[in-house]
Amino acid sequence: DAKTTQPPSMDCAEGRAANLPCNHSTISGNEYVYWYRQIHSQGPQYIIHGLKNNETNEMASLIITEDRKSSTLILPHATLRDTAVYYCIVRGGLTGTASKLTFGTGTRLQVTL
Amino acid sequence: SQTIHQWPATLVQPVGSPLSLECTVEGTSNPNLYWYRQAAGRGLQLLFYSVGIGQISSEVPQNLSASRPQDRQFILSSKKLLLSDSGFYLCAWSEKTYNEQFFGPGTRLTVL
Question: pLDDT for A56-94, tens place per residue?
Fold first, then answer.
C-alpha cells in the first residue's frame, strides 16, 4: 500500500471549514484513499473513501486531485466535537480478502472557539 | 444495524498474568475481524485478522494470540503478559465486499 504524508497538526475555528491535506504520490491505479478519525480514548471512526472522483457524505467531502497524488478532506462547518486525529490511508480495493489498513500518525485537528 | 462490543473497557494486570479480551459483532454474518494495538502516543498497529471461523493471520510476532471460535466472536489472549503489552486494544470488523472497517470502543490494558 502507498505511503501517505500528513501535517502533524492543524487548528480551525469553530464554524469554519477544516481542510486536511494528504499526499500520496506513490498511489497506484487500484488504490483507494480512506479517511478515519480518532477522538481521544475512542476507537477510530470511518469518515469517507474514494478512488478518483470527489465524494461527499453527511460527515465530510473528499477532494482527490486529477493525478490522484494528493487529496483533501473537508469538514464544511467544524465544531468542537470534530477535534480529533485524522488519518489518511491508501490501500488496494481488493474484495474477498482482509482489508489491512495501515495507520500512520495522522493530523491532530484542534477546533477552537 | 451492526454493532461491535469489546470488554472489558479497562484492565490492569500484573506482569506474567494471562489475558483474555473479547470482541463480538452483531447484525452481520461472516465478517472479517481484526485486532489492533495502539501504544501511548503512537499509531495503530494491526496484530491479527480473521476471514472466518478458526482462520487467524498474524501480522507481527509477539506475545499474543488470537482465536475465532464463533463467526462473530474474536478473542485476544496471552499466557504471560509483558510490560510492553500495555496499550489500547481495538477490535474492528468489515464486510467481505466493502473495505471500510468499523471499530469497537477499545480496551485499555495496563500491565504493571
Answer: 999 999 999 999 999 999 999 999 999 999 999 988 655
Q: Residue A32 and residue B99: Cβ atoms within 8 Å?
A: yes
What backbone phi and psi angles, to 5 degrees, belong to A89? -130, 140
Cα(A62)–Cα(A25) distance, rounded to whole angstroms? Answer: 17
Q: For residue B44, give the nearest of B89, B82, B76 by alpha carbon.
A: B89
CA dist., res. B2 & res. A109, Å (int): 28
CA distances from A99 to A1, A23, A67, B44, B82 (A): 11, 21, 24, 14, 29
Cβ atoms A1, A102 nearer than 8 A: yes
Whether the CB of A50 is below 8 Å from some CB of chain B: the reply is no
Query: Hey, how many other C-beta atoms are within 10 angstroms of the C-beta on A49?
Result: 20
Q: Mark yes or no for CB contact B49/A101 under 8 Å.
A: no
Q: Rounded to an integer, what distance in angstroms lies between the CA atom of residue A36 and that of residue B71?
A: 26
Residue A101 touches partner B, C-beta closer than 8 Å: yes
* CA A20 from centroid of its chain's CA atoms: 7
